[in-house]
Amino acid sequence: xxxxxxxVFSDKANNSTSNNEVxxxxxxxxxxxxxxxxxxxxxxxxxRENFMCPAFLLVSYEQGSVTLEHSGKTTVLSPGSxxxxxxxxxxxxxxTSKESLCYKYIxxxxxxxxxxxxxxxxxxxxxxxYFQQEWYHTxxxxxxxxxxxSSPGHNRRENVLLQxxxxxxxxxxxxxxxxxxxxxxxxxxxxxxxxxxxxxxxTSRHLSHPINISRxxxxxxxxxxxxxxxxxxVMQMTPSQALTRYKIQISLGLLQAGKSxxxxxxxxxxxxxxxxxxxFKIIFGKSPRKYxxxx
Length: 295
Prior knowledge:
Blueprint: H1 6-9, H2 17-28, E1 30-40, E2 48-51, E3 56-63, E4 66-70, E5 73-77, E6 82-85, E7 91-95, E8 102-111, H3 113-123, H4 136-149, H5 155-180, H6 191-205, H7 213-220, H8 224-235, H9 239-256, H10 261-267, H11 273-284, H12 288-294
Helix pairs in contact: 2-5, 4-5, 6-7, 6-8, 10-11
């Protein structure tokens, strides 16, 4: 007689509702590596620099230290620090060490938009010391080191490894936060997130038109009160604010590709160039030309 031992070794905890929800969320999540490498800081000692990123910036510090001021918080990054910058948050940084800055970085984004928003909501509402936990500057840093060092000179292979490394880090953050959630709270992987993604999909198909929430609501077969509630719940902003940021984020790629401010404003449905430039400045704190000149 042959005994089937599979049930003895199966992890029954994997069948729990909470784990299934995290797995469902992660299976729908995609990581896009937009840039990576190693940089040496050019920031002069005690000189202050204001900056903002339209996507996630993950850094692992190897030399030097910098002090960040943001949203009423102070964060010190020094050798061994592992940190993720929150998109569209204004940071003011100054170098606070004699040694020049040196850090590895991965610039990445998450799709779909609803997954990106949920990750932001879970990861950036607490204390910044969350990213200073032992796991991040041991296992997290090792994941990055392995991804950077495994295939030097092979950009495609390196990019895949970096995607998996970032995905592992994101999964850990999501899972640890989810375990700390009050009983009954969920990740909102339901009709709300579907409606969010449909809204951004609709906008991407109508980039050359001004944002018109009423028209979008009719096209999606929902109501204005529903779309307002869903955006406030998932993204903590109105539909107009979220979709405007989406367009401005797209504008960066177009500008960096060499298109003029006038061309970009027309492609994104702005009737007047100054209106686009003013909207860009409200979000990034600088005009398009000044922002591109500082990156």
